[in-house]
Write a structure and sequence with these properties.
By secondary structure, the protein is α+β, with helices and mostly antiparallel strands. Helices cover 23% and strands 32% of the residues. It has helices at 58-72, 79-86, 91-97, 139-153, 168-173, and strands spanning 6-11, 38-43, 48-52, 102-108, 111-119, 124-130, 158-164, 177-187, 190-200, 215-216. The chain binds coenzyme A.
């Protein structure tokens, strides 16, 4: 029997995920309502991929965003700011923008471990969030590279971001430069301190030709 790169097998028990104490679930299956029987995909390399977000990804995206704000941003913001930022995160907002905005997820096995969103109209990185359990493994860099590829495909000459203060070293390491301090409105009446940063995009020959393409990510270990 030929050995397939991806082998699907059924596991008849709940499997603990390294993320959020949740369980791994197949695409489209709500973790909260997951039955005892779960489908697990084994891949030859178990490599992370970055792909365009689909409608069934909204729950996973919110799980990542909430955990990232609460754990990775707490070093630079007050508990009240963190709660104002993370508290309202809910899947319907993402369900409404998936398919409209340039929204990508980083996936390991069946688990969403990061996501990123680009606004092509304003050349702005709207968001990059990585689950704390997957931080400092190159996931954020892989997502940012994807956004930059998409921006180049749309002939954008530069990108900017209102970077949360905790994320400034991350954007600096990817070639962004600080421009000015600002207050970023996260809710009506709630603003958080951030740094506007910019990066000029050099055109390069081999930007991914299709933003739906699933790509393995260099730099991920
Ligand atoms: C910012 C964020 C997306 C970075 O994701 P990540 O996957 O951990 O980043 P990477 O592993 O690709 O880091 C690449 C480089 O950025 C720098 N970097 C990333 N996080 C850093 C940190 N907390 N402190 C210092 N440098 C950091 C390092 O130079 C790192 O390279 P190294 O690990 O080899 O030293 C992640 O920390 C996060 O989700 N933060 C909370 C949400 C947020 O603030 N998002 C940005 C606002 S839109």
């Amino acid at each position: 029997m030929a050995v397939a790169a991806s082998i699907r097998r059924r596991i008849f028990q709940l499997v603990a995920s390294p993320f959020s104490g949740s369980v791994q679930s197949p695409p489209g299956r709500d973790v909260g309502s997951a039955p005892q029987e779960l489908l697990i995909h084994e891949t030859a390399s178990n490599a992370m991929i970055v792909r365009k977000a689909g409608h069934n990804d909204a729950e996973g995206i919110c799980r990542v965003q909430s955990a990232a704000i609460r754990q990775l941003c707490a070093s630079h913001y007050s508990p009240a700011e963190i709660e104002a930022w993370a508290g309202p995160v809910e899947p319907n907002w993402y369900r409404n923008v998936i398919g409209i905005r340039e929204l990508f997820v980083a996936v390991e096995g069946e688990t969403i471990i990061g996501f990123a969103q680009l606004n092509l109209d304003t050349a702005e990185v709207d968001a990059i969030y990585v689950h704390p359990a997957a931080a400092r493994r190159g996931v954020g860099s892989a997502l940012l590279r994807r956004l930059e590829d998409v921006a180049r495909q749309h002939d954008l000459a530069s990108l900017h971001v209102a970077a949360s203060l905790n994320s400034v070293p991350f954007y600096k390491s990817s070639g962004f430069h600080g421009q000015r301090h600002t207050k970023f409105p996260i809710l009506p009446g709630v603003e958080i301190a951030s740094l506007v940063m910019e990066k000029a995009l050099e055109p390069h020959e081999k930007a991914a030709s299709n933003s739906d393409e699933r790509s393995c990510c260099q730099g991920y270990t």
